[in-house]
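To close the section, here is one more complete example, presented without commentary so you can practise reading it yourself. The ligand is beta-D-fucopyranose.
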Amino acid sequence: MTAAATGGRLAGFPPGFLWGTATAAYQVEGAWDGDGRGPCVWDTFVRLPGRVEGGDTGDVACDHYHRWHDDIGLMARLGLNAYRFSVSWSRVLPEGTGRVNQAGLDFYRRLVDALLERDITPALTLYHWDLPEELQRHGGWADRDTAAAFAAYAEVVANALGDRVPLWITHNEPSLHAIVGHAVGRHAPGVRDWRTGHQVAHHLLVSHGWAVEVLRAGTTGKVGISLALEPAVPSTDSAEDAAAARRHDDHLNAWYLDPLFRARYPDDLWAWLAARGLTPEVGFDDLATIAAPIDFLGVNFYHRRVTCHDRDGGPLELREVPAGGTTTAMGWEVRAQSLYDMLTAVSREYGPCEVYVTENGAAYDDRVIGGRVHDVERVAYLAQHMRAARDALSDGVPLRGYFVWSLLDNFQWDSGYAKRFGVIHVDFQTQCRTVKDSGWFLRDVATSNGVPLGPAITANVAPGTDGPAPAVPSLTEASS
Ligand code: FCB
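Output:
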């Protein structure tokens, strides 16, 4: 969508605003045993029968480990000035502690240097759910020693890249990793125990605090954490549903925000969980450690959760109900207002110095037709959410950047390759990349530093300002 196509009406962003895409190591890299990488919990989990749709694995994924150079070329073609990626812990430390695998570190050094050469700001996430298997064998995140191992790993990465990465994210979505991976068991390592889930969440937060200290000493960059913030709202106006939604909201959001910004867990939920024997062990000083000041908060936003009371609904006695209205291929509600509400509420209540939307995006059933992907729904989704972000900025949220999930279609955890989130389509048979219309839309946003206003974004998405179709096939060839 060009400015011309909307009559030039753009909601502009401040100079220097970061426009990027986000990925995670296990979801895109592949090369699962290449160049000395050790196994991680996902390598094990995907091999358990029935855990991942279609029996898919991240063994090859987008083969980004080998195609990173071309992938950075695609980012440059899209005019992006930032890229969020994660480091695979077991590529750097195959056993999780001790021995450093230099080839693994070199991969990230090459990646970062190539990004900087293209004026693309690297935003490095240290941990996106891929614990080295060796550490899982010794208890994983349920064991406090894993938090110490994480701080040591952070130091290794900081020593290698501390002088050239401006944005450091300790953890990605500790809530999802703790609960979906350790209480519900739908993600690796597949543990199903709520108390363990809460202990894991606590250790992830403690490890964040220790890593902040390490990164302060060993890097020149800004340090933060990315939380999945998912507002929970009651399904009816009954008092019971309101209380259930409040519990859900505390469990999803305040359980992480309160320790990070206020050095405490939320009282009501703590009491609820304590009555059921589900609170974590908290060491002396842990809360002060977790609340080490950070430079920015990363917000990953996808959808809100409409919640009702349900006596049989697990330890929190609640259940989610469909929100109604439009949904993505994940079944997630499309409602940009929720992003605005979340950004403004979090800024008002917790006062982060800076905020980045470190993930936002949508899965749709994309098809390549004649070398093009007309993903009009994703374009509309992104435009609406970017406008909501712009409104939040106008209303005082210190928003500094926006990363679309994701650069490429990739391994979507327990959904395998069935769900496509990329602004670039990947044919997983051939590894052919095809820029979707949403990729060209993102280019126009990034290069104009503005989001088109007006409703007419769903149709007639321009192929990109420099024009007609040939640009796409040649990109496809160049990177396949
Ligand atoms: C987030 C994860 C990310 C991706 C998106 C769709 O919860 O951080 O890895 O899978 O969901």
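Once you have examined the tokens, check your reading against these statements. Residues 432 and 480 are 4 Å apart (CA to CA). The first strand starts at residue 10 and ends at 12.
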